[in-house]
Amino acid sequence: MDTLAFEYWSDPLCIWAFVAQSKLEHVLDRWERCIDVRYHVVPIFGSVVGRLRDGVWAKQGVEGRAETTRRVAAAQGREDVSGAIWLDDCPASSWPPCVALKAVFAMESVEEIAPGSGAAYQLAMRERFFIENKNVARRSEQLTLAEALELPRASLERRLDDGSAAAALWEDHERRESMRIQGSPTYVFEGGRAMLYGNFPVHVLTATVAELVAGLDLGGSPC
Prior knowledge:
- This protein is α+β, with helices and mostly antiparallel strands.
- The chain has a single domain (4-218), classed as Glutaredoxin (3-Layer(aba) Sandwich), CATH 3.40.30.
- It has helices spanning 15-19, 21-30, 48-54, 61-75, 85-88, 95-109, 117-130, 139-148, 153-161, 164-179, 202-214; strands at 4-10, 35-41, 186-189, 194-197.
- Strands 2-1-3-4 form a four-stranded mixed β-sheet.
- Helix 6 packs across helix 9.
- The longest helix has 16 residues, at 164-179.
- The chain is globular, with a radius of gyration of 18 Å.
């Protein structure tokens, strides 16, 4: 059977990606046999410090960022998110956790770990950040999380130390630039012919995937 491949782009520190996890899981569960998701990482919070100093978060400050995180999560039924991490142990950048994610996805790509381990690590990282209020920009948190999921710590450390994970993240960054990915989360279908970005109703995603999957029988989307 032909499969519909699509790219899923997100930043591990993005609250919108966290609360939209159910949308991704919905399409994966419904069309499990005929879709293939390819995960990419987009560090939109490359410098949290810069955003707070003179960027888009400067006006609201770190207190406003914490409140926005809590409010967005609550609006989506996630009362377990307080936003306290921004106040208590604010990460300076989303680059380090993004690099760790690329390392784990690389381990999965060479069958060093089980299929789906990368996605599981990504979700666990978000839960550790938003629910447990742990700064996942710290290597200690990245390694502890890997051990909790029974992923080989030594392999993860090697990829963090030799620069290969950082190189993979840079390649994602370059692809993001060429495809004009606006932010997190973003779904990219058919190499960019269709793209969904940000906060949108689940039925929009469902309808898009349904049409594209239906087009598999024709060898293309039913435009």
